[in-house]
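Query structure, 293 tokens:
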């Protein structure tokens, strides 16, 4: 690799009191912002994943470029959150960890596996290739992208989709879900041919990644069984059925405590997930769950 160009694992701190992505449309916007920033920066992306309350990127660039990439991603997505949900706080306070990965196929293989395996560890899907919000389905995927070139989309629809006037190559392919497929800009070939080499070796790294080992050690009973977004969508109906109120914010402390217990019982949620979907800190959620009101 060229001088000062390194491989960087960029990770945002797990938010405990709110979500990056609340529903599918948020993930679609997040995926398109990745494509936009790759086009603007020219940075090589080897792997990435968008989870409910954090993100991971594996980038080939200088450290300064990696920092600019994630900060610009946070800035753009914060603007989107403000427009869509009126969330003024944004993601400015969401800390970022940037660490160098040795320029060795073995080290990169473990890191790619660690990233894409997030969705499996969270009990969202059985294999990274089944998770659409990242690069898990990009490697050794011989199925053609079912979509249209970006330049076939009208200017108005293009702006609505990308939330950006930036120059993005028209040959990138937009899939049926409405976002630019990661295989259009990801350096999947390098990951396939140099890092993993065969699908079997990729599955070996996924199965034996640190997160996979922790999942086996912890047991599935200690992990959420439902996605954050599924629980979040059920919150209004649950508030109405239990307390005759339309939102969690309308509940008093006693009702909030009971509501959180119901979330834990009905969805087999752990405290971290309960805090995220309720918009509370871990400490607040723990206090309410342990209260005897």
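Result returned for the query:
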């Amino acid at each position: 690799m060229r001088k000062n160009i390194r491989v960087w694992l960029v990770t945002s701190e797990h938010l405990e009191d709110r979500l990056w992505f609340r529903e599918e449309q948020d993930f679609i916007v997040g995926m398109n912002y990745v494509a936009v920033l790759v086009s603007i920066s020219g940075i090589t992306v080897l792997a990435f994943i968008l989870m409910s309350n954090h993100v991971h990127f594996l980038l080939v660039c200088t450290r300064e470029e990696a920092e600019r990439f994630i900060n610009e991603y946070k800035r753009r997505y914060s603007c989107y959150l403000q427009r869509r949900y009126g969330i003024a706080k944004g993601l400015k306070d969401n800390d970022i960890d940037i660490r160098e990965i040795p320029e060795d196929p073995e080290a990169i293989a473990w890191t790619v596996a660690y990233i894409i395996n997030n969705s499996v560890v969270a009990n969202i899907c059985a294999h990274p290739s089944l998770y659409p919000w990242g690069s898990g389905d990009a490697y050794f995927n011989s199925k053609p992208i079912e979509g249209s070139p970006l330049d076939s989309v009208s200017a108005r629809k293009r702006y609505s989709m990308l939330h950006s006037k930036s120059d993005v190559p028209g040959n990138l392919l937009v899939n049926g879900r409405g976002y630019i497929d990661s295989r259009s800009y990801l350096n999947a070939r390098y990951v396939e041919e140099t890092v993993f080499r065969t699908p079997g070796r990729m599955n070996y790294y996924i199965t034996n990644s640190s997160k996979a080992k922790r999942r086996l050690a912890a047991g599935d009973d200690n992990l959420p069984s439902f996605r954050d977004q599924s629980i979040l969508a059920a919150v209004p109906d649950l508030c109405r059925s239990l307390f005759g109120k339309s939102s969690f914010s309308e509940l008093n402390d006693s009702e909030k405590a009971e509501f959180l217990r119901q979330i834990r019982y009905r969805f087999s949620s752990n405290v971290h997930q309960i805090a995220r979907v309720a918009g509370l800190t871990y400490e607040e959620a723990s206090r309410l769950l342990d209260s005897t009101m």
